[in-house]
# Entry
Amino acid sequence: MSDYAKDVLVSADWVEARLDEFQSDDPDHRLVEVDVDTELYDESHAPGAIGFNWETQLQDQTTRDILSKEDFEDLLGSHGISEDSTVVLYGDNSNWFAAYTYWQFKYYGHDDVKLLDGGREYWEDNDYQTTDEVPDFSEVEYNASGPRESIRAYREDVENAIERGVPLVDVRSPEEFSGEILAPPGLQETAQRGGHIPGAQNISWAAVTNDDGTFKDVADLEELYAEKGIDGDSTTVAYCRIGERSSVAWFALHELLGYEDAINYDGSWTEWGNLVGAPIEKGEADD
# Structure
């Protein structure tokens, strides 16, 4: 592994060497796959992996918000995860939804959580073990210590960021950033208006990963953001459409580079693009 700021990435080899622990009813180790739906998980997954549906299990469907503290505790405890468990998360789309879940774990104060570098695709493409068996772990009690608001941005924080010239990182595609389209092709359009938050820099979430879905090393990540004037010396707000791609960028900034003032605006363009009177800009990113 590269010399990242925090020990939060594990390799597929690391996970494979501990599959017995992940399949044990002992809650010390838990492996969790997070996808936008569970069809992929139902077909095959790493042995011992719990399957979470990002849309229906990790969000409040009424408020389109992250789970309440109580619901988060209930979900994890019911799947044999305690606050002391070493949890490794992975998922599809180069860990889009796993990174969001990682951020939610950190928001609720879970310290020992990691991402499987490369996600589901890397695991499958490199012929690691898979199964269609669903584990059934004994329920445990989970007590969350959060929320830790220091890693989360709200509408007011974004408004303040615009006024103060705080760096904003829009991790969507150039077409979304410019306002040409409202969502990636094939995905739901969740906003009424297209464009981006004034002053935002367009740095794609995909720019932080290699072709195989693993994260780039520290030097490459530092250079990527430094080219846009982001060096960790001030607060940086990451956003996308629904908060999952921005979680990948937040993970790279906050966890891998150690930029402690990086925060994730999980309301993202779904909130901002629907706000009456909120300022937006259109057009391509500046070179």
Q: What stands out?
A: The radius of gyration is 18 Å. The chain has two domains: 9-147, 151-272.
